[in-house]
């Protein structure tokens, strides 16, 4: 009964996050940022708050990069990268606290042991996957927080750079679009780097399973 209650609670939480993500979408946030973007300090505070609450609404992390690029220009890259690391920590911590000893956790631990924590996280970040999925996977696999943070910073570089460049290129806030980050060249290039980083460890992990 206890397991059933936990399962129902988990399903309810996921459903609530999805509903919130729909009702409070990134498009709604972007539409209300004109006043914030007008002042750099205000924008920095707003981006920090967005980074802290983003996991609750299942917003893409590229929202931070695009808005930083629009408000700060290319100089917003380090700010955006730091905040992307910050916003990735809550899903990681939640998954780490709830991690058990099942087959998924064991498989993740084997892959981390084979690839190394830093390489595993950085390579996974390069893949065009939802950020929170990678964060949760690292938490379940028992990746140390320092390796997780550094690996996230390294692996998110192309995505954050693409978001900042896209944000900087928009003439008006009305033109801002998160889809602009998904440049096929960025997707292919980052995926190839991920393949180089992870192909060997994944193959060896599979062979030893």
Automatic annotation (TrEMBL):
It comes from the Archaea. InterPro entries: VTT_dom. Residues 59-168 form the VTT domain. Keywords: Membrane, Transmembrane, Transmembrane helix. The chain crosses the membrane at residues 41-70, 77-95, 186-206. This is Uncharacterized membrane protein YdjX, TVP38/TMEM64 family, SNARE-associated domain. It comes from Haloplanus vescus. The lineage of its organism: Archaea, Methanobacteriati, Methanobacteriota, Stenosarchaea group, Halobacteria.
């Amino acid at each position: 009964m206890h397991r059933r209650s936990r399962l129902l609670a988990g399903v309810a939480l996921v459903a609530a996050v999805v509903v919130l993500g729909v009702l409070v979408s990134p498009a709604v946030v972007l539409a209300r940022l004109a006043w914030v973007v007008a002042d750099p300090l205000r924008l920095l505070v707003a981006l920090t708050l967005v980074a802290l609450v983003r996991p609750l609404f299942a917003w893409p992390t590229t929202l931070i990069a695009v808005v930083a690029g629009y408000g700060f220009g290319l100089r917003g890259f380090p700010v955006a990268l730091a905040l992307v690391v910050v916003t990735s920590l809550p899903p990681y911590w939640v998954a780490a606290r709830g991690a058990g000893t099942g087959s998924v956790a064991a498989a993740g631990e084997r892959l981390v042991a084979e690839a190394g924590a830093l390489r595993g996280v950085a390579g996974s970040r390069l893949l065009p996957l939802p950020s929170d999925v990678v964060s949760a996977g690292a938490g379940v696999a028992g990746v140390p927080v320092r390796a997780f943070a550094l690996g996230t910073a390294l692996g998110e570089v192309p995505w954050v750079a693409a978001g900042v460049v896209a944000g900087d290129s928009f003439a008006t806030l009305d033109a801002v679009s998160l889809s602009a980050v998904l440049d096929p060249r960025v997707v292919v290039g980052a995926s190839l780097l991920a393949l180089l980083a992870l192909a060997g460890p994944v193959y060896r992990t599979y062979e030893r399973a």
